[in-house]
Amino acid sequence: MTSDFLLPDNTSDSPQYTEHAGSFVHSHGTKVFIKSRLDGVLDAVAQARFNEKRWVWIPDPEMGYARAHVLNELSKQDTEVELESGQVKIVQTKDVFAMNPPQFDMAEDMAELTQLNEPCVVHNLTVRFRANQIYSGLFLVAVNPYRQLPIYSDECMQSYKGRRRGELSPHIYAVADQAYHDMLHDKENQSILITGESGAGKTENTKVAIQYLTTMASKRILNKNGTVLVNQLEQQILQANPILESFGNAQTIRNNNSSRFGKFIRIEFNMQAHICGANIEWYLLEKSRVHSQSSKERNYHIFYQLLNADKAMKEELLLNDDHASQYGFLKDSQPTIEDVDDAKEYENLINAMHIMGLKKDEIRDFLRMVAAVLHLGNIALTADYSGERADVRDFSALERTCHLLGIPAQEFKKSLLTPRIKAGRDWVNQAKSPAQVMASVDALAKTIYERNFGGLVDRINRAIDCQKTTSKMGFIGVLDIAGFEIFEVNSFEQLCINYTNEKLQQFFNHNMFVLEQEEYKKERIEWSFIDFGLDLQPTIDLIEKTNPVGILSCLEEECVAPRGTDKRFLEKLNSTWVSDDPEGKYKSIRFKESFTVKHYAGQVEYSTAGWINKNKDPLNEDITRLLARSTNRHVATLFEDYLTETEHQIPNESGLPTSSSTFSLMKLRKGGGSFRTVGQRHKQQLLSLMNTLYLTHPHFVRCILPNGRKHAGEIQALLVLDQLRCNGVLEGIRICRKGFPNRLVFADFRKRYEILCPRQASTNCFVDGRSACQTLLDSLALDSEKYRIGNTKVFFKATVLAELEEIRDRKLSEYITRFQAGCRRYIARYHLTRVSRQAEAIKIMQRNARIYVTLREWSWWKIYAKLKPLNVAYRVESQIKEKDQRIADLENSIAVHQQSYEDLQDQHSALVANYKTYKELLANEQRLTAELEETKIGLSEKLRDSKGKIDQMLAEIKQIKDQVDERQQKIDELETKASSESELLAETQKVAEDHSLERDILAAEYEALEEKHRLLESQLEAVETKSQNALMEVNQSFDSQIQERDTKIKQLKSDLEARQRNESLLQQTIETNKNQYQELISQKEVKKIYIYLERFLD
């Protein structure tokens, strides 16, 4: 079935699963990998805001708890606080709860919280939920997101395989992997206990855990294509869920796929750690839902799926109407679920049943019972004129019901309207009123559905528990059961559920803290052993104890008593358990038929109206005996325990009768010497379950419903807080507060907190970790009751680490303040020095500027400035002559280089012409070589043709020889006949002469062919020799010519490259000389102009 707790294959925004550095610690009985934290503040702004004020939590009627900061502590009882909205309130000090520093937000393991109180736990769950982190630690707490999250993909599943706890984010995969790992290494059975309210995600987490186990422990079988084949047993275990959901789940106000029964799924493993079988046990099926639901809820899914079955199936089950409104047990319920296709779900159900191995007849039998319940709801009754006797208004509905159940319609009607009762020694028929008959119909419908459901679970168990082997390693059990319930009106069903959760909470308390105390013993710290399971024992005794009589035992007595009533039952309870003790677990309520029981989750008021009938679960035994004699084997088997020894026996598959004693161990009914009430049966089932759980190592999962509106992303703090109490999360936190939940190894403690006492911590000599930690703790003057020092760790009470963190933050703040003051002092001095140097430099620049201005106006300086350039004119003439001589030399050099360049150009042209000639010669040689190759190929083909002709001649010669042999054989045969037939002698001699002549001719032809063959072979050998010699000569000549051409070409290339280099050098020299020549000319012209100007000025 589709659920609000959706499990997608993949989406974006996938959470990151990365490894972190860290260390191992022992926390609550399990080895845990603790990630290392940064010493610095991760969020400086939040930390600074937190340090400014003393932030606390105070109760709030709407949000549960609100943030505030303390303004003033007025007295020991009252404290003045200011809310974030600015409102100032005075609250009692006992209602003020400390807040964790910001670095503890989003803590994965709630044991790491330094303040373990209700508001801190709710706040941590809230911030994680809003960040899509729906799983949290201490033990696993799962909040239903009501939307798709990308945390259930195959990649995510593989990432948790074999990982240590704490190495990745908390997840149901981590719990399942831890259970599998513990079973393999400790050789101990494991259990995963999943509890929570309806809609909290129990069923989906159960499916995810089973899916993980079947995936990790499956046998990987590859086919020829390399794909993985799915193991049939593992597939059947997974397909058991859709079947159980169809028959045992329904839509409620809080959940579209609420499991209305508890189940314990036991998965067996063999010595190879592979799944070898499974078993399902079920508890407390909500039978009343079969005949009554609210308008916003639905009956069990199977009813609506069956109405959307194929036409042939509906015709066989007489379901002519497709609408739920046409059936009495469905007309008041919600007909459909949003985004759920009942027809598709029916196909999935049938497919799952086929995978489970159910035959078509078996499937039809189970669905027949469901259809019979639907028709039972359509039986309409009417009353006679007095209103005391009932009659059936429409007999067709009754007939359809009887047809499906395989019982006579008239006998069923008689048993329903006027059942037999025993009056003394005689049996008499008693007429029933319409209300009584309708109550009997409802009870029958509930029983039929419950027994059909039980038979279905038994059939599934036979399918999945297929390997009866003794070499089993162990099992992992997954318990999915309803959590603690507190409604406006609580009845007998709520007492059974709460009694179950009380026992499970006691088991939780025992395992959680007993293992923790074993860690204390291992570390040898001072500790008095406490059994926290005893805290719940008074409530459990109140419910189950026999002396003094408890609630269930008292109810049993009233059910057995001839005239037991609900009122007398309540009076007996009040006389036994009412006391003046304010801590008492039982309290009576005046003027009401109810009482109050103080559970671990709170006080619950139970209404005792109808408890006797609910516990007896009365049935019309005339009808049950009629069903036990049904012609339908499935129906008769379900009710066989109602047969007496004198009644007809049920034929088995072979057609032989079988005694009802075969099923004596499965009796669930009252009467016939086996009176078992609902309370007694549940108590025995719970006892068996607890015995099984105490033989396992448990892992706990607490599921939380975030809001009552099925809205994604919304979390209601009050609702979550109520569930935390009911689920035992806060009870577990209470246990942690009594112990030492926070711990650090010596090295980590010393590294983090030696800053508080640097003088005592810093020493030049070696100090062991225990002594160093003891010195630090003594220096901090901590109360010795708040911590313990073990062999390798320091243990702290809750809130102690928060105090140390605050002291450390203050110390760091002091150090940082000093450091900042030093930095500011250095910066200020540096700035001052820089400004003073700048002022001194400005003064120097100003002084130099004034001197320059004064000098510029001085007459003698003006004269000096004019005469200074004239000193160069006396050397101009000699420089001009030197430049002229250099220009002439460069012109001569240019002419020589120009001539050399022209000679090189002529040589280059000659080399290019030679290169073209040799290239043409090489092409001619290549053509000649190609012609010789073609000649060779032609001679080879002729040689092959000659060989073919020779082979053909040889074949003809062989054929002629065969003919000669054949004729010789005939001659021999004729000669043989000649001895007995003398009259044919002459004719035979004539034939022999002819044959002899022919043989001579053939012999001559053969010799001629032989001669011709030898001639052809000699010619062929000559041709081959000649062609090989010619080819060899051509190759040798061609090779020598090629070598000569290559040598000449290489020489020409080298000469050409040398000439090109010479040309480039000559060109560079010419360019240089030209530049120098132009420069000299320009300088000469400038000097001439300069001399001309000087003369002109003079």
From TrEMBL:
InterPro entries from the UniProt entry: Kinesin_motor_dom_sf, Myosin_head_motor_dom-like, Myosin_S1_N, P-loop_NTPase, SH3_Myosin
Binding site for ATP: G196, E197, S198, G199, A200, G201, K202, T203
Keyword field contains Signal: no
GO terms of molecular function: actin filament binding; ATP binding; microfilament motor activity
Gene Ontology biological-process entries: actin filament organization
Compositional bias per record (Polar residues), positions renumbered to this chain: 1-17
Chain coiled-coil ranges: 873-1026
Domain Myosin N-terminal SH3-like: 51-101
GO CC annotations, alphabetized: cytoplasm; membrane; myosin complex
Keywords: Actin-binding, ATP-binding, Coiled coil, Motor protein, Myosin, Nucleotide-binding
Highest taxon, organism lineage: Eukaryota
A Pfam family the protein falls into: Myosin_N
Record-annotated Myosin motor domain positions: 105-809
SUPFAM superfamilies: P-loop containing nucleoside triphosphate hydrolases
Segments for region (Disordered): 1-20
Keyword Coiled coil attached: yes
Actin-binding: annotated segments: 686-708
Protein family according to the UniProt entry: Belongs to the TRAFAC class myosin-kinesin ATPase superfamily. Myosin family.
Protein name, per record: Myosin motor domain-containing protein
Source organism of this protein record: Phycomyces blakesleeanus (strain ATCC 8743b / DSM 1359 / FGSC 10004 / NBRC 33097 / NRRL 1555)
